[in-house]
Please model this.
Amino acid sequence: MAAALGLSPSGSNPVWVRVPPPILNTMKKALPILPLTDKDHHRFWKKVQKRRWNQCWIWIGKKSRYGLFYLSGGGYVGAHRASYTIATGHDPGEMQVCHTCDNPLCVNPRHLWLGTDLDNIADMDKKGRRINKGATGEKNVHAKLTQKQVNRIRYLRDTKNYTYYKLAGMFDVSFVTIHHIVTGKTWRT
Ligand SMILES: [Zn+2]
Model:
């Protein structure tokens, strides 16, 4: 949901309200990215300035705010979305592909993640789940994080791109919780 100038439901004074982004939600559906051929992959990577594995890889082809990749079937998609699809084999469909690096032109798949992760966390917060010291793992009904999120935290930490503090902010838990998850004190799998 993006903030946009709109009319409040009850009056005629313009106020800032949250409205769905029209391009994503009403004007058209996300173009299917798959299938991609070897030729498409080749075409894609020719437009990418690759650097070290953990640095931002910059799209040097056509762009607006994001890089734009032309599908052989016609139409442009976000280059970061195409990169996510190439890396995972999964088309993001209606989901958002987000950047951990906040660099819209970056297409390094290690810096990309599906928007649904955040939705999950927001959902967890809404339900008021908290870490309970008495139990370990997902069996603890008060656990704030799911096993999937814990795996994700460990994976991100393994990439060495994330400090404990950054992960704590991303998952809205404490530094100590992240430390325990990474060192296996709270979560055992
Ligand atoms: Zn990046």
